[in-house]
Amino acid sequence: MGIAYFFSHIYKKYNSDNDLLIDEKQLSTFDVECLFLDYNSMIHPCSHQLLATLDETKEYSVDELDDLIINHVLDYTRYVINIINARNVYIMVDGVAPRAKIQQQRSRRYKSKMFKKDDNKIKWDSNKITPGTCFMKKLKDKLYLFIAKLKDEGHDFNIHIDFDYGEGEHKMMNIINKLNNLDECKKICIYGLDADLIMLSLMSVYSSQIILVRDNSSNENTNKKMFTYLNVKSLEESIINEIRGRYEGALLINNRNIIYDYILLCMLLGNDFLEHIPSLIIKDGGLNMVIKVYIKSLDKNKGESSLVKLDELDRGNIKDSINMDMLYTILYNIGNSEDYFYKSIYSVYKTNNSIYKDVKLDEYPNIYFYKDDCIKYNQMNYKNRYYTFYGIGDIKDACKKYIEGLYWILGYYNGHMHNNWLWYYKYMNVPFASDISEYLRNRTDVKRYIMDSQNLEKSKRITSMQQLWMVLPKESLMEVLEDDILMKLKRLLKMKDVMNKYFPEDICVDIINKEYLWQSKVFLEDFDINILEMIL
């Protein structure tokens, strides 16, 4: 998922003179050496498409629906492979994710289950699209049979399938960055277009040869299939030209450093692992703001240093990879604009946007919606109300864990260099920029904490069964578990205090000043992995 609205923002900003959409014929003209399919970004829309076409007067068994969806996914896979005609095809399926991503998946899957209306006549639980479920095992088996069939048909390409540990986009980047002597005229085509893929592509050694495409499912012209398209080289050049054009001193910094700095700046706008800084909203100029304060910080140090210390990163030293002095300056300047943001821009945003304009909240009986603005950002003492509402009792600790998170994400984007799978940000929201910068005043203590952090070192992995228990609501879990594991769940059901804590039947959802339901925040207890290790 990544940063909300990131793609639409950068397209409007950098690519307004270019075509966003290309058709099948145009797509087939690229000389593609490698095609990478971010497969989960295909499975989900294919399941929606298939379910929308079914006859609601008929009854379907669970197995029938599974088979229909899998067959549709495979048909669409054939379609994409035939159009792009690459020499090497890589099908990358999400495996077990790091705990930080699992936290986000837990929220998303609860929303998927709880926000689904009961009036749907054909019921299929999309939470099955999670590593370790019977559905994914069935898909894996059929995918290998499908590949064997393609080879029997005489298709002249190499094809690789990956269901192993890790997110699909990160696994594909590990392969891309290890490619040897790729002809500079050849393209690497990635099917998928979320913000994480864009960031990872910008960081790749082959960034100038990567193109990203995705089926434009919103296209109304059904007679002509269109694809959304992004040339990473063009985006990279646009970012570099903007930074250099706004500050001449940036000439002292190399292009790679500008891109890495840009990616770290974008982390302040939120991603799958950390929420956005409260006063940075991309639709309200958040990206422009961080670039502005970045330029200001470059001017302060005469362009002699960058935000990301690439020499340390290249040596594998993730714990000294961020220029903390520069990070302090950036956050300090963002913090100085907080009151203005909440008194002016935020007030307009609050007036114009309301999630409950077009959503009937009473249709969800097991959900309590926080909709009244109890924080009142545009009034005095909004910080105290914010921290109270989100249960952040130790602001300094939240600041410390947020900074640690920036290091973890930078290492994760950079080939998962720390190989840590257990870190996650434990608070419901992140501190204000002004509070983080205040905490950074004593940078000696912060640096000491980062140097001693076990969360930036190799850890054990989470198992697929542990991930299932952590991300799925009880109803979804009971549908996907095999009989022997179901017995363990039934034993857990008798532990009512544990069940009520980790598998709530009623949930609280924060929709304060949210524009859409998908932006809502679910209040859920963090799963204690030690309990899972005892049960499983």
Question: What does it look like?
Answer:
This protein is α/β, with parallel strands linked by helices and 536 residues long. It folds into 2 domains: 6-236, Rossmann fold (3-Layer(aba) Sandwich), CATH 3.40.50.12390; 247-352 and 386-456, no CATH class. It has 23 helices and 10 strands. The chain has helices spanning 6-14, 24-28, 40-53, 62-84, 99-114, 134-152, 168-176, 195-203, 232-246, 255-267, 286-300, 310-314, 324-336, 338-352, 382-389, 395-413, 433-439, 443-452, 464-471, 474-480, 483-493, 496-502, 529-535; strands at residues 21-23, 32-38, 88-92, 158-162, 187-191, 210-215, 226-231, 367-370, 507-510, 521-523. The chain is globular. The mean pLDDT is 88. Residues 255-343, 372-521 form the Xrn1 helical domain. It holds the Pfam family XRN_N. This is Xrn1 N-terminal domain-containing protein.
- The count of strands amounts to 10
**Rg over alpha carbons:** 24 Å
Q: Identify the overall geometry.
A: globular
Q: So what's the CATH class of the largest domain? A: Alpha Beta
Mean pLDDT across residues:
88
Question: What is the fold-level CATH name, i.e. the topology of the largest domain?
Answer: Rossmann fold
